[in-house]
Every structure is written in structure tokens, then in C-alpha cells.
Amino acid sequence: MYTEKELKEGTQIVYLSFLSDAAENMRMDGIKPPFSVMDMIKSCMNVQSAFDAAIADGMSQKDIRFKDLVKYSDLKDSDKSIIEEFSPEMFDWKIVDIQDMNSLNGFFSCCIETSEKEAMIAFRGSENMKEYTNMVNDWARADFGLLNSRSTRQQEEAEKYGEYLLEKGLIDKYDSLAITGHSLGGNLASHFTIASAESGKEKLFNKIKQSINWDGPGVSDEYLSEHQEKIEKAAPKLTRYKWSAVGTLLFDIPGEHSEFLGINEDLYKDDPKERIKYKVITRHSTKSLMFDENGKAERGKQDLVSKGLSSFSKAIDKFVPEHITTEIFAAADWIFERILRIKDERNIEFNDVSWAERFAKKGSILGTCVNFINKTVDVFKEGALALENEISELFSSPQMGYTPKLALADVHGGMLQDYNYNRTFERDAEKNIDWRRKNQNFER
Amino acid sequence: MDISIFDIVENGVSNRDISNAITKMLKDKYGEEFEVKMIGNRYGTFDDNAVTTYCFPKSNENLLFTATMNKEQTVLEDDFYLRKVTFDLEENIKSEFKENNINVIVKSKIIGLNKLERELTIQEFIKKYNTTNFIAHIICSENVSEDDLKNIYDKLENKYKNIHLKSSVYFIDENKFEEFSKVANKMPSITNSIISEYSIKDERIIKIFEGTVKVLK
After folding, report:
1. What is the pTM of this model?
2. What's the pLDDT tens digit per position in A65-106?
3. Alpha carbons A350 and B174: distance in angstroms, whole number
4. Residues A135, B1: C-beta atoms closer than 8 Å
């Protein structure tokens, strides 16, 4: 059994951007997997030039550790910051297999051997790359797929990956498996375990001893109905840890163990701007977590922002017909974007607490938007009118130093200026509905 | 404008804003016009504070490269100059196969280097970074004999003295080739996992190292 810290570390490895390149580089040299994490890192960096750079920077040869070489290497900064957090034993973990469909549909997973008899299957769960000129159509299939969905494309990939691991016998040698993933990867980890509960996959399912969703979203109402039987079987193995708004989106899986984790409140204490971002947004990173000497994560309680957004996401999923989900979110996003733009343009400062509260309140604003737009199709004009009072209230508070009239002028003025955008949106929305009709998903 | 539930949780910066910011930064850096083809990977990254785009210079829409920006729109990491080198290599590999009447899709990468400070030709690059490896995925719709492959790679070695090139040549079903070509055209690079979706019939690993061509498999 892994500690919580080790399972969190598994999610960090899959965030490395060069894993596939490293594996290909080694495979083309005739080396067969598994590859140690350290060898993979080395294969993607020029060790000698990193060493020379460390010496040139005044380090003495005997003090240079592998992490120092990484720091002085030409690896990407994002990769360096991930490796910097690695515990020493992680460098000896071995990558047995990688499934990298990231450029195609966002899916990335790998099987990590940590000892002779134990392995983890970790999921990255990135947002897929979408064509800039064809956004609306892609919502339905991509990240938005979590709403109103029976399963998303990445969930299908996760399921396929389980079948592939079984078919290739890649998990045969292990007595126990842990499934882990952060953010959307957490959702995929849960789905992987649920999908493994299907008849015929006992060899895989029985080996799964732990399955952790680290602050990833839950599932839709439709998903719960579709996978009910498998959920009943898999639920005792599932754990969901939450510490930001992302982790509280959508519905919990009945029977899964769920807890709120605490975040490191000392981070960014001396940087008010970063601290606001941290409290509201960047807390979602696994870097926020704290672990004791036994590798157990510190527990905590739900924050204000996630309370607001949690209800909002559930309401959208449960009450809003599938075919207008994207339109609703487009309207909500448009308004949200205007709010943030006005804030920037007028240099409005928020203090830590009020910003968090206002963010939570946006849940209710958007909730109103959802209810209203549910009754009308004219998203932009009518939706904005319904929101007038609440938006003006938000902007006219003393802390904002902003009058309701100005706020409304900005909102409506922006809409008129965005005429071209609206036309594009309407056209794309029609295409989207056509696409759904063609795929027989229109009627539910 | 694109939107996801995660954008709402985060900061709601629209794709239009991202695209404008990135193309402006690229223009300031390289002095030419760029466009964004794909956007994504905003969340599901370690700190959820970056956005990835696949861009191309308006002068060559096939030259896709990756540009990453943080959400404050201040930091841009891109591999434009590196991709110019690999793109030229890809074009040369394609034309060598073409001389043997074989159509191929080629995607290549440089391993061990993430950015170039200035534009270099392939020859200049090899001279400056003489221990750096290129890896390439080459996808063919028809079988190529080992002798033909050896000839093609001998010509490449002759053209690019001292190149370190490792490559996988995949043979896929002819009817999947066009479909795969469309998918590959949307990405600056491809992976073995993606190619595996297109019914690989056979694979050869071929290396050019220190002036020698070796067919490994």
C-alpha cells in the first residue's frame, strides 16, 4: 500500500513533458522498458553541459547533486519545477508503459513500477488541444464533455488503456496496483477503476488496492445512471480528496470516500497579488498540500469559492438541457470576462477576503443566468437583462468603488461592440446543435 | 471565444485574448506575423498556470510549433527556431523518400535542447550541437525494402555530415494514410501511441550515428 504522499508523487511524474520523447529516444537505442525515471530525465538533457554550467556558477564538484544538474540543464522550466519536488526514491521508480495521446485528445497515462510487486497507474488528464477556429463544436466532445455525459473521450481512452494493459500482460507481475491522478486526471483515475469493475476484467480490478482522485471533478448525473452497477462494485476502492473549486465540481460518486484536505496557508504570505490567486485559483496545484512524516496529507475544510461553484456545476448538469449547455456557458463566460476586464481597466483592487467572497457569489449570479437562459434561447440579450440587478449590485459595492450605471454600460456596450463575435457564436452554436442531432444526442 | 467549466474556476481569459497576446509576443520576438492553430492544456498541468498553443508563421502554415504562455500573459516559451531546424529536416527526409516514389509523413524532434537563441540551418545546428540527437517518426503507406531505406539514409548522411538521427519508420495501411496525414498536420509532433492507433503493419528503427547508417529492426 502506498502512502498518500507517494500517490500524490505519482501524479507529478505524469506532468513531465518529455516522458514520451525520452521513451522514444531510449527505445530507438534498442533499450527496452521499464525505464528508470532518472535515466529518462538524463536521456533528455545534456548532462555534461549541465555539469559545466554548475561548475561555472561556482558549485564545487562534490556538492553537485542530480537535482542541481537538472537545475542547470536545458530542460523546460516547468519540468525543472516538477523534478525539484521529487523525493529521492522517485528517481528510481520505473516507467513500464506510456500512453501519450496528449496532442490528439489530451489523454496521457503511464504505468509506474515502484517495486517488484507494486505499480501505480497515473493519469495526467490535460485539456485537449482544440482548433482555434472551431471552438464551440469542440466543447461538447472535450472538457465540457463531463457535463451531461455518460462518458468522455478521455474516459474512453482510460478504459481502453486498462484493456491494453490487461491484453499485453503488463500488470501480471504485480500483486497490487494503485490508480492515481490529479485534476481531470483524478476523474480519469476514478473512471479507470469503475470501468475495471466490468465483468471479464477481474484480473485488473482485483489488483487495484487504492484509487485516488486528487482534487479532480466528480461526474454527471447521467454518468451515475449509466455506470450504476460498476460504481456499486468499485466505490469501496475509490477516494476523492478535494481542496479547491475544481475538486468539488459535479457529483460525488456514491460510496466513495471523500475528504477535504488543508492547504499550506503560509504560501505567498508576503505577496498579496499571488496570495489572492492562490486562495482562489492556484491552490488547486498539488504543491499546496502538506504531508506529515508518515506521508499522510493534512486534512482541512471546504473554502467559499468551491462552495459556490460546486452548486453551480451540479445545477447546470442536473437541470439544464444538454443542447443548450454550451450556449449557457458562453453567456456566463462572456459576462465573467467582462467583469474581469472592467476590473483590470479600472484598476480595481480586491482585498483577499472580499475577492474570495465575490468569487463565490459569482456562483449565484451564474446560477441565475442558468435558470433564465433555460427558458429562453436568446442568450446574449435576454440573459444579460436578467443579470442586470445582480451585476450592478456586485459592481456598486463600496469596495468596488463602481456605480451600477457604469457597470451596465460596460456590459451592454461590450455586447454591442462584440457584434461580430455574437454572429460567430450564433453560427457555431447552430453547428453545434446540428452536430448533436447528427450524433443522435439531441433528444435525451 | 471558448469556455470550459475550468476556465470559470480559473480566470476566464478567452481564447481570443490568448491568441492575440501570443501572436503579438511572437511578432515582437521574431519580427514576423503568426497565427494560432490550436489552443489547450490549460488545466491538467502541474500548476494550472499556463496555456499551450500550436502556432505557425503566416509565411508557412505547415510550420507548426509550440508556444506556451502563463496566464498573466507575461512568459512565453516557444520552440520556433528549433522547429525551423526540424521542419527543414522533415522536408528533406520527405524529398529523399519521394525520389524513390514513396510518400511519407515525417515529424521530428531535437532531444536535449528546448530552445535556440537564433536561427540556424541544419548544418550550422549540427556543427554547434554535435552531440545532440534528432529523433524522427516516419510513416509510410507502402513497404520499403531494407536496401532502399539504407540508400535513402546514406544520402541523408551524406548531406548532413555528423548528424545524429534516430528514427522509426512505420508502415501503416494505405487506407489509413490520408486520415493519419490530416491528424498529423494539426500537430507539431506525434507520439508512438498516436501512430499505434493507425494499424501499424511493420516498423524499422534506423539510426545515423558517427557517419554510419544502421537498420536495427
Report:
1. 0.79
2. 999 999 999 898 889 989 999 999 999 999 999 999 988 888
3. 60
4. yes
